[in-house]
């Protein structure tokens, strides 16, 4: 699952640390999300989307997720 977190974060001119604090995770978690080493939980994805005032679908690309 790809994300636009880094792109949106840079557009808003905030650091990984600032985003992490705003959504209640560590900077390392934000780094892992941006490097696609970690997949956000639904709750974390919601918090990130709410922070950026957008939808989860606008941040995360689910095109590579296998259907059930």
Automatic annotation (TrEMBL):
Any idea where the HTH cro/C1-type domain is?
5-59
Gene Ontology molecular functions: DNA binding
The record's section on Pfam families has: HTH_3
Name listed for the protein in its UniProt record: Putative transcriptional regulator
Q: Which organism is it from?
A: Anaerobacterium chartisolvens
Please name the InterPro entries in this protein's record.
Cro/C1-type_HTH, Lambda_DNA-bd_dom_sf
Top-rank taxon: Bacteria
Q: Which UniProt keywords apply?
A: DNA-binding
Which PANTHER family does this one have? DNA-BIDING PHAGE PROTEIN, TRACRIPTIONAL REGULATORY PROTEIN-RELATED-RELATED
């Amino acid at each position: 699952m790809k994300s636009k977190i880094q792109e949106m974060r840079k557009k808003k001119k905030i650091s990984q640390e600032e985003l992490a604090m705003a959504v209640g995770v560590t900077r390392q978690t934000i780094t892992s999300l941006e490097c696609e080493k970690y997949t956000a939980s639904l709750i974390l994805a919601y918090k990130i989307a709410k922070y950026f005032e957008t939808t989860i679908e606008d941040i995360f690309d689910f095109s590579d997720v296998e259907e059930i």
